[in-house]
Amino acid sequence: MMRKSEIRDKESFSNDPRNSSSHLSDKLKNLFHFRRNRAVTVSTSYQNSSQPKSPEHSDESYMEGIANGSDSFLDQKPVLRRISSAPDSHEGMEAPSKPPVNTSNMKKAQIKTLKNPANYIFGPTEYSKRTYSGNSTKVSRVEVTPQSFEKVRLLGQGDVGKVYLVKQKSNNRLFAMKILSKAEMIKRRKVQRVLAEQEILTKSNHPFIVTLYHAFQSKDHLYLCMEYCAGGEFFRALHSLPGHILPEKSACFYAAEVTLALEYLHLMGFIYRDLKPENILLHQSGHIMLSDFDLSKPISTETHPRMLVTKHSTFSHDKPALDTNSYFSVYRTNSFVGTEEYIAPEMIRSCGHTVAVDWWTLGIFLYEILYGTTPFKGKNRHATFSNILYADVNFPEYSAAPNVSSTCKNLIRRLLIKDETKRYGSVAGASDIKEHPFFRDIQWALLRSMKPPIVPNIQEGMEAVSKTSGLPEAPDSIDHLNSQYLISSNLPAVDMHSATPIPEVENPFTGFSSVTLHHAGDE
Ligand SMILES: Nc1ncnc2c1ncn2[C@@H]1O[C@H](COP(=O)(O)OP(=O)(O)OP(=O)(O)O)[C@@H](O)[C@H]1O
Question: What ipTM, to 2 d.p.?
């Protein structure tokens, strides 16, 4: 079962952003031709069922089952989901050498930054320098082993591993445990990506970003023990609604939460690069939790965000605003990653990209949750990319089209400006976006205390680590969608592999720290 077939997108594009449209169009054709042989654009995933796995499974067969994707208890309900593209991930393809970088229209400082590979390659230096402890998170040596948990059921499946709902035996707390096969990661050249994912998860501590509790490894597998998002995927919740769309006020709520999550990631020095409904999970309270950071990019920077006190955007009211953009907007990276319909023009042009790609994806996301489709989707990849590069954003105008205000359309148009230097968010990052009149009713500091429009109907016994109740209602609440996940009360315990020390010299996963994180507010 292929869930997220990954493709490697070669440096097929010229690195000249001033390509003529016919020249670029030829290149698009080549690119499309190249990819058509190697990837599907939509893959099928299956909804999970609550049926427990047979208690007879031994550790070994259980782990083999994970590696081979042979879980028998997957429900065969196909749901169309979009795949992410990434470099260095496709079997049999060479890892990218140095990505092509167009430097013709960059400032000297930018070029200097790009020429230093340490700024855009995850090298051992960056990992050896990692520090995780913050004021609200304490990191210790790992305090659990695979035997500390019992498996409850499969939650989902990625390319090189699976995510299980597990229960910690000592305290009955539920977690989502991502178990990744080392052999698969090596084969698919995903080692650096999982190290990046662990780095981001370990460093992050934000209400809208999935929380990591433990990370450890055995001889054959890596384990990421995360907060269990009992509401499941936002994508599925969206697809359970008529027309797969939300009313504008609800869309505003989710766009606001996503903006805060992106703002935080940018402040931490990460570009997310894969925003889409499939990568947003819902906490049991209904609030979003951004997940799946394996396409994200940590960028080292020596400067800090600064306060802006001057008027910096059309909608600014001279309030001091945090500039989350300038301090690392000069850092460009060049991998071709993301999901076809969400990819920003500068990424297609292979002239390097910055944090501005995340604001582009916010525009696509907002459009999609309002209209049920993305704005540049073409009949094939070539057409989609061509639209992304050249087409204007059009808003459906037929009589039954969703009712979307001109203010909202204005925000979408500004986020989807093709020139990244003019795109909304390019001056002061999230502060620009938060000031747009579309968000005028959003109380940013109180957002996490609002009752979200979609509140998952969680069955008894399914509660995750924390509970929220008595929250103020968000506008246009959509009452209690049926929970996708049910749990049976008598679940068999299935032990996992024990953690085994690995000789360092042969282990490409030494950068994967075995840690336990204690977050402020944990019992
Ligand atoms: N913390 C979580 N709580 C609940 N379900 C989760 C959690 N994390 C992941 N899942 C489920 O597991 C699925 C697979 O998660 P994963 O992080 O591997 O993402 P992916 O996008 O499917 O894989 P890949 O990393 O290969 O792109 C998700 O789509 C989701 O349904």
Answer: 0.96
